[in-house]
Each structure stands twice: as C-alpha cells, then as structure tokens.
Amino acid sequence: MARTVFCQKLQKEAEGLGFQLYPGELGERIFNNISKEAFAQWQHKQTMLINEKHLNMMDPEHRTFLEEQMVGFLFEDKDVEIEGYRPPEK
C-alpha cells in the first residue's frame, strides 16, 4: 500500500514520495508534506527554470535561487514566473 501524506501544495491527502529526494531538513520537510503529484509539478517547473534562465547547477548562486523557487512553489503557494516565457501554441 502506498504511503499517503496531507500535501501542503495541493491541500489534500495524496500519495507520498517513495523516498527522500532532497537532502537535509528541507528534504525531510518535502518528504513528509509534499505528494508525488506536487513534486512532479515542481520538477516540470524546475526544468523550465533551468532551461529558460540557463542555470548552471555547479554554481552555488544558481542552486540557491532554484531552492528558493522550490520552497516558494511547494510551500508558499507561489508560482514560478519566467520572464518572457510563453507556452507553445497548440
């Protein structure tokens, strides 16, 4: 049976992550309070941020920026805004 959590992002009971995907206290907080579905949403946004802003994950400033965006998205109900980004037309 899958582990469930009350997801702070989605505000509902949902399937939790299978294991801690991020290190440290923040990783523990994500594991205990964020669902698989919400984390998948973040991963999509994270990919967009990395690509559109040309982030280098070897750069500590870029990693700090990405972590701040992740906390805002998952726990503070902030959406990730990418200046100049327009979704592809269908």
UniProtKB/TrEMBL annotation:
Q: Please tell me whether the keyword Iron is annotated for this protein.
A: yes
Annotated protein name in UniProt:
Probable Fe(2+)-trafficking protein
UniProt keywords (A-Z) are: Iron
The organism that produces this protein has a lineage beginning with:
Bacteria, Pseudomonadati, Pseudomonadota, Gammaproteobacteria, Alteromonadales
Question: Sorted alphabetically, which PANTHER family does this protein's record hold?
Answer: FE(2+)-TRAFFICKING PROTEIN-RELATED
Please report the organism this UniProt entry assigns to the protein.
Pseudoalteromonas rhizosphaerae
The family assignment reads: Belongs to the Fe(2+)-trafficking protein family.
What does this protein's UniProt record list under function?
Answer: Could be a mediator in iron transactions between iron acquisition and iron-requiring processes, such as synthesis and/or repair of Fe-S clusters in biosynthetic enzymes.
Pfam families found in the cross-reference section: Iron_traffic (PF04362)
State the superkingdom: Bacteria
Which InterPro entries did the record assign?
A: Fe_traffick_prot_YggX (IPR007457), Fe_traffick_prot_YggX_sf (IPR036766)
